[in-house]
Amino acid sequence: MLVKRVTSACLIIVFVIAAINFEPLSVIAIISFAIVALYEFFTMVEKKGIEIFKYFGIGVGLVILLSVSMRFELTRGWELLLIIIALLSLILIQFRRRENQGVIVGLSTTIFGIFYIPWFMSFLVKIRFLEHGAGLLGTIVAITKLGDIGAFLLGSRFGKHPLMSRVSPNKTREGFVGGILFSLFAAMASKIIMPIGFSYKSLLILGFFLGILGQLGDLSESLMKRDSGIKDSGNIFPGLGGSLDCIDSLLFTAPVFYFWVLHFGI
Q1: Percentage helix, strand, coil, to 5, in the chain?
Q2: Could you tell me the pTM of the whole model?
């Protein structure tokens, strides 16, 4: 399992580095990961016996990602308008159902999935389109994913105190601290690819908060998987699981990082 995990991780790292430096490939990679992850999420929900509109939700998610990727804006915040339209459409579709039971859960879960994965992932596309986008995207990926790696390595080696056994029995407090330390290191190392306006102090603050958010994203997905009674969201990447398992931490850090950059400027 460790060999499979390391092999998959190395292949993903090589691909991500190549994608970050080539804008069209970045966009394709982000969309691909997001849509596969959304499919995995909806499949996970269906295993709980919840009736959702899987392919309708995937279609809406794809439109959101494509509209952001093509810089299309019918109005400001176009993707939110699209989600509202999707919600109204789903309500209209409900009238065709023969039974009323499960309507609220089905509607809520479908809309949540659209917000949780495609919309949150669309911020990675927005980050890539900013000035110095390659460096910014490389920074957010490095801080988040090195945090994941640190949590796994230090948790496996030194972990003794459970962090939240009800949610994920394998995660420990030592691993949580390790994840933050690795995120801080990644933030400092990112100075060489970040815009000049970012000081080491701001990067340390950024690394600390994103390190926490990334692990909260990981714990949130673990909570959903535990509720669904599964270990991994998929099996695309041997030893690592599915697409959602790979991007869960980025779902929480990407929007925060995007607004951080806009607030403090480049």
Answers
A1: 75, 5, 20
A2: 0.90
